[in-house]
Structures are given as structure tokens and as C-alpha cells.
Amino acid sequence: MSEGIHTGFDEQQYPHINRGLDGIVAFSTTKSFIDGQKGELIYSGYLIDTLADNATFEEVCFLLWNDRLPNAEELESLKKLLIENRELPQPILDYIKATDKDAEPMAVLRTAVSMLADFDDTKGKYDETLFEGQAIAITAKIPGIIAAFDRVRHDKDIVAPLKEESTAFNFLYMLNGEKPGEQAEKTMDLCLILHAEHGMNASTFTCRTICATQSDMYSAVTGAIGALKGPLHGGANTAVMNMLLELSKQGEDADAVAFTKEKLDKKEKISGFGHRVYKTFDPRARLLQHMSEDLSEETGHQELYKWSMDMLNTMKSEKDIDPNVDFFSATVYYSIGIQPDLYTCIFTMSRVSGWTGHFMEQAANNRLIRPRALYVGEKHLDWVPVEKR
Ligand SMILES: CC(=O)SCCNC(=O)CCNC(=O)[C@H](O)C(C)(C)COP(=O)(O)OP(=O)(O)OC[C@H]1O[C@@H](n2cnc3c(N)ncnc32)[C@H](O)[C@@H]1OP(=O)(O)O
Ligand SMILES: O=C([O-])CC(=O)C(=O)O
Q1: Looking at ligand 2, which residue's alpha carbon is closest to its atom 3?
Q2: Exposed site from 26, 29, 175, 202, fewest CB < 10 Å?
Q3: Which residues are catalytic?
Q4: Whole-model pTM?
Q5: CATH fold of 236-335, please?
């Protein structure tokens, strides 16, 4: 049956379909502002460069949940709550130990976050007085899920979370089983800041759509993880690293220009390039580029940075397309020793702050999200009994 029959919505009068909802403004938000022409990104009033220079991930969480920076006491209190909420319920650890070691880390993370709702004292109840506590509980536990699965699949013991230190420090500690150096912690913290929030991207839209049915925050984050996982969205960071590793098979003299042109000739999309909103260099990619360059010198992976730049220049000259956040984050994570298939999980560890901030914003001014589809199938067909089809 046509979508329009009961409401008088006449598809003949609406011949234009906006594929991908390009340019459609469906919400107002105080969470972030993107100027796609200038390449500017603001989280709740603060330029991304200002936050990169000054903030910690925990301060950014507070900012996205409260639309203002915390004072010293509020920041200490949030840090304490995040630490207290790190421990994973035993059934989640049991699931991680029992699941297939070859499972996709993002799939394991999605399932574990969904399970978390059952062990939350609030059972994920949709109640605005409970939302910030739920956001803290989910944000605090995601790093432990990622680290635990990575250790289990490598036949290593799960490392219990620390009762101190930042989210970035504790994550690297749980992943590697040893305390990270200052540089690795700072790099991880900066990556968490840069990935925290980005307007109405596909995963945040998914989160708000689930929130708008008055479902619950765990369902919304689970759905958002599913959306982020795809290679056209957050999954692109893993795809970038796999592409560079494929190129590295050519040896140190690999030709990244020819490699890129070949992909373009085959009409392949190059991961880490292009963006629905930015028509210029993504400001996060610029910050990550500097980090990638510095780390490539420190770790002796200079060829990865050189190939990245060759790809970037080729994309610019051939297609006039700039890199997005996923392009240089890949080599940054690689330089600090993280396995490529965990990159999108790390993105999740950060973006959960933005998702949950949007969840609270949606709930405070809610309306069901329900667009239309143009029916293009047949109508009023005669019924044919099964034996005659
Ligand atoms: C965190 C994030 O989600 S950032 C984005 C991460 N995703 C990626 O890096 C995957 C690669 N990029 C892409 O697939 C796209 O640029 C997207 C999905 C990010 C944006 O898609 P859209 O806004 O729908 O742009 P669309 O796909 O229509 O591209 C417009 C044109 O640029 C081309 N183009 C866009 N990105 C790329 C790319 N990465 N490589 C090659 N060509 C590209 C398209 O082929 C298209 O060309 P055409 O008009 O000649 O057909
Ligand atoms: O905004 C988008 O569409 C994708 C993106 O860069 C992000 O989610 O960080």
C-alpha cells in the first residue's frame, strides 16, 4: 500500500527524493557547529583547535553533556564517576571470553554495549534524571570491552581497570598490560577529543532516531555503533590502514601515486577522503596530520607518512577531494602500536560522548523522527493463489 493513502500524502506532488537527506536540517543543536566551506569545527562554543590545545577528553565529555566547561570540583567529580564505573559485569567478561576470537571487534563491542543495559541499576530506563548517569556508565565501560576482547583473542589475560588515571591512560594500560608513556597517553587523549562530536553524522542521527521513539540510551548507543561500523563512516579508519598495508607489500619504494590513480581508474572510493559537509580539509585531519608526521619520525615509520602525503596530493590533483578525520588517524593509531581492526572501536570510545549528549538533547525536546518514502512499486494487484504463482 502506498505510504500516502491514509494521510493524503500524494507522491505525484513530491517527485523529488533527497537521497541521503543531503542538506536537510532536522534538528537544532548546541553540541557542535561545522563550517564545511571554511573547515571549522566547534563543540558547544569551543573551536576544535582550542580544545585540542587545552582540554582533556573528560572535560569534553562534560562539555557535551552540559553545554559548558566544568569547574575544578565538577571535573574531579566526573573523573571519579568515570573511574568508579569502569569495572565490567562478570557476564560481559564471560561473553567476551566465549565469543569467536575472529569476530569483528566492532560487532563484539555492539553486542557487549547492548548487554550492559541488563546490568545497569536503572535497566536503561528512559528518564531524564537518569540519562547523565547512564552516559557515564556506558562511556566508562566501552574502553574495557575493547581491551578485554583484544587480549582474549590474543590468548592474554584480561587486565582489570585502574582505579586512577585518565580514560586514555587506562585504556592503553588495559590493552597492553603496561602503563603507557606520557606521549602515548597524550596522543590517545587528543584522538578522543578530536572524534567526540560531529553534528548530524549517520551514527548520531541513528542515535537520535532511536531516542525519539523513547526507547533507551543503551539501544541508541548500540544502534549508533552499528552505523559507525560501516566503511563509509567510522569504519573508514580501519580501511585506510588496510589500504596502506596493502601498498606496503610493494616494498619501501611503493608507488602511492600510481596506487591511488589505479583505484580511481577502477572507480573505487579511496577511504579517508571526501565528506558530506566539508568541501575543504577537515580541521581534525589537519591536527591528526601533524601528529602522524611527528609520530612517523619518532617511530621510524616515515614511509607511511610519505605514502599518505602522496595519496593526499594525488586525490587533490585528480579529484579535488580532501582527507577526512579517518585518513591520518589510521597512521596515528598504528604508530602507537594499535591493531588496525580496533581503530573504529577507538572512534566509538570517543563518539559515545557526542551520541549521549545528543540523546539528552533529543529527549529534552522530543518528536518522533519519521520521514517519508516515495512509493515506486505497483498498486492494486490482483491476488494470485500460491499454487498459481
Ligand atoms: C567519520 C566519517 O564518517 S568521515 C567519512 C569516512 N568515509 C570515507 O572515508 C569513505 C570514502 N568516502 C566516501 O565514500 C564519501 O566521500 C562519503 C561517504 C564520505 C561522502 O559521500 P557523499 O557525500 O554521498 O558524496 P558522494 O559519494 O556523492 O561523492 C561525490 C563525488 O565525489 C567522489 N568521491 C567522494 N569521495 C570519494 C573518495 N573517497 N574517493 C573517490 N571519489 C570520491 C564520488 O565518486 C562522487 O563523484 P561523482 O560526482 O563523479 O560521482
Ligand atoms: O560528519 C560526518 O558525516 C562524518 C564525520 O566526519 C564524523 O562523524 O565525524
Answers
A1: 201
A2: 26
A3: 275, 326
A4: 0.96
A5: Cytochrome p450-Terp; domain 2 (1.10.230)
